[in-house]
Each structure stands twice: as structure tokens, then as C-alpha cells.
Amino acid sequence: MLELRPSCECCNKDLPAEAADAMICSFECTFCRDCTEATLGGRCPNCGGNLVARPIRPVEKLEKYPASTVRVVRQDGCAPATA
């Protein structure tokens, strides 16, 4: 089950469970769409995998399967992707 991490690892922007701009890789690293497109070039800086839209968990499922409250933030932010 996805953790649904609460923030962008680059800029620490809040990304609640219903956020339409949350992006994830296959390891669930989580970024906002702005950082994904403008800084990361669509690639996860941790694993190199592609970043895709994170699914939204239906509200009625969040009570039984809550989103994570653990914030993961890269201490130095994210460096721009290299071509």
C-alpha cells in the first residue's frame, strides 16, 4: 500500500492525500509537479526512475488506511537535472 507521503522532498510543499500535483517514483519518493517538471526533468533524484502522478486514495479509505505523516525532505533540496 502506498505511504502517501505528506510533502515534496525538494521544496517541502504540502502534498495531502488528495493533492492532484503529487508525483512519485516506484520507491514512493514524493515530489510536487513543479519540482518534477522545472527542476528534476521528470526523474527521481534518488533512484533515477521516472516520476508519475500519485494516485488519490478515496476519502472513505483514508480512515482505515491513513496517509503517512512522516515528512522526507532532502537537506540540500534538489539539484537541477542534467541532460
UniProtKB/TrEMBL annotation:
Annotated Pfam families: DUF1272
Matching InterPro entries: DUF1272
Protein name: DUF1272 domain-containing protein
Organism per entry: Inquilinus ginsengisoli
